[in-house]
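Anyone up for a design puzzle?
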């Protein structure tokens, strides 16, 4: 798919230039590492997301930066003490879409962007869930 490759490359170029974003809730900067971009394409080792899902994430990426820079409220948290990892979910409604941004933090390391997903639409298809609700995979 030619358009997909162009969009992916354009998004990656923009992604590489995203500076760390101060998140008011976390009271620290969230960094945008290669792991976050990789996760927009893959769910796990050698498990690529559907092209449609990737494209949607690429399109929502600018909203992730905005949401992280203004959010002062946490909507979801998942912690795994055995793996020493915590996922934070921040949700905002923008252009009739409920968008969730997921930030991952390993142990005492810096929090980093993990994912952006449309949680569900808030108009005619009110409350129809599009994703599973597993912050590690979403």
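Challenge accepted. My sequence:
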């Amino acid at each position: 798919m030619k358009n997909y490759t162009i969009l992916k490359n354009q998004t990656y170029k923009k992604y590489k230039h995203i500076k760390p974003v101060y998140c008011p809730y976390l009271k620290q900067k969230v960094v945008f590492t290669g792991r976050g971009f990789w996760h927009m394409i893959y769910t796990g080792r050698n498990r690529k997301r559907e092209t449609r899902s990737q494209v949607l994430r690429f399109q929502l990426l600018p909203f992730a930066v905005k949401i992280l820079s203004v959010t002062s409220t946490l909507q979801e948290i998942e912690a795994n003490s055995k793996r020493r990892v915590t996922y934070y979910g921040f949700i905002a409604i923008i252009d009739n879409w409920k968008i969730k941004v997921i930030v991952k933090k390993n142990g005492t390391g810096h929090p980093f962007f993990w994912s952006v997903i449309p949680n569900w639409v808030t108009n005619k298809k009110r409350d129809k869930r599009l994703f599973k609700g597993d912050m590690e995979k979403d």
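A detail worth pointing out: The radius of gyration is 14 Å.
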